[in-house]
């Protein structure tokens, strides 16, 4: 005898569309400025910052696309969990893009240390100021949604990295302009690349954790299993699975073996309440089964 219960949550992605559109427009406009000036002046620091700006625009564009895809989710098309994982895939793609850019900047900067080119300081400073202003706008626009959505967090981290990069470009441009120090530009290029890498690794790890359907880090699965097994009327809890569909959407399923005198409806309600209140999981599918039915269930080992 089985009973199921689910109390749905919803992805907050749609709430972030306005933020993402603003960040996309601002980033695209100033990306063109930095690309043109960076190539014209051969400033590695500015080129690296422009490359990060490109990944910002691509990343925010993918984030927008992922949310729009998620909004088209439909059970009728066989997508019983919708397209929410598109957000996580977009975040992982953002991380891979940032890995590539950071690696390129570091390699290119090291190659330039032998004979650093002369970089004109004035256009670099002006472009850095423009980029800094653009990144500040995008930073404050995206900050509110970064804690709610891994997808928005990916775009936010790229903007944060680019914000720091713009400050670095400004410093290197001023050093070149005021002191004529030709090593400022490649050194700052390396610093920007190294700054991005650990944050990118963290984003990639979080994305892969969701894609591999690991339990959320905050959830102790063994403790949850014991808590379910200790509920009144429950003889044993087994076949517990906990995973994250996308940011803010955590899901669980479990089988509860009951005593012969237990009321299945009461057991189901107690388990639902436990998961919602203690573990903040409101979407759970729970199968309540009498002791004799659990023997066959445990023959399945995955």
UniProtKB/TrEMBL annotation:
NCBIfam families given in the database record = CDF
The Cation efflux protein transmembrane domain is annotated at 20-211
Q: Where found in the cell?
A: Membrane
Q: Which UniProt keywords apply?
A: Ion transport, Membrane, Transmembrane, Transmembrane helix, Transport
- Coiled coil segments of this chain: none
* Protein name per its UniProtKB record: Cobalt-zinc-cadmium efflux system protein
Q: Which InterPro entries match?
A: Cation_efflux, Cation_efflux_CTD, Cation_efflux_CTD_sf, Cation_efflux_TM, Cation_efflux_TMD_sf, CDF/SLC30A
Please report which protein family the annotation says this sequence is part of.
Answer: Belongs to the cation diffusion facilitator (CDF) transporter (TC 2.A.4) family. SLC30A subfamily.
Organism expressing this protein natively: Saccharothrix violaceirubra
User: Looking at the UniProt record for this protein, which Gene Ontology cellular component terms does it annotate, in alphabetical order?
Assistant: plasma membrane
């Amino acid at each position: 005898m089985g009973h199921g219960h689910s109390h749905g949550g919803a992805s907050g992605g749609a709430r972030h569309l306005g933020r993402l559109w603003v960040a996309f427009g601002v980033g695209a406009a100033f990306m063109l400025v930095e690309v043109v000036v960076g190539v014209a002046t051969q400033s590695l620091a500015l080129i690296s910052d422009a490359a990060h700006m490109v990944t910002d625009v691509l990343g925010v564009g993918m984030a927008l696309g992922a949310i729009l895809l998620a909004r088209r989710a439909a059970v009728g098309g066989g997508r019983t969990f919708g397209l929410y994982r598109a957000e996580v895939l977009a975040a992982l793609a953002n991380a891979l893009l940032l890995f590539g850019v950071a690696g390129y900047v570091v390699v290119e900067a090291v190659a330039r240390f032998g004979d650093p080119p002369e970089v004109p300081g004035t256009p670099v400073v002006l472009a850095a100021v423009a980029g800094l202003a653009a990144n500040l706008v995008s930073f404050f626009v995206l900050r509110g949604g970064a804690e709610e959505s891994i997808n928005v967090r990916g775009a936010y981290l790229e903007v944060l990295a680019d914000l720091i990069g713009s400050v670095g470009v400004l410093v290197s441009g001023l050093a070149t302009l005021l002191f004529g120090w030709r090593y400022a530009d490649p050194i700052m290029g390396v610093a920007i690349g190294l700054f991005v890498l650990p944050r990118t690794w963290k984003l990639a790890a979080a994305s892969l954790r969701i894609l591999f359907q690991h339990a959320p880090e905050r959830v102790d699965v063994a403790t949850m299993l014991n808590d379910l097994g200790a509920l009144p009327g429950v003889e044993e809890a087994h076949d517990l699975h906990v995973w994250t569909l996308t940011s803010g959407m955590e899901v669980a399923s479990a089988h509860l073996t009951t005593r012969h005198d237990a009321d299945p409806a009461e057991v189901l309600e107690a388990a639902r309440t436990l998961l919602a209140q203690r573990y903040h999981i409101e979407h759970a599918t729970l199968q309540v089964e009498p002791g004799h039915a659990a023997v066959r269930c445990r023959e399945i080992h995955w």
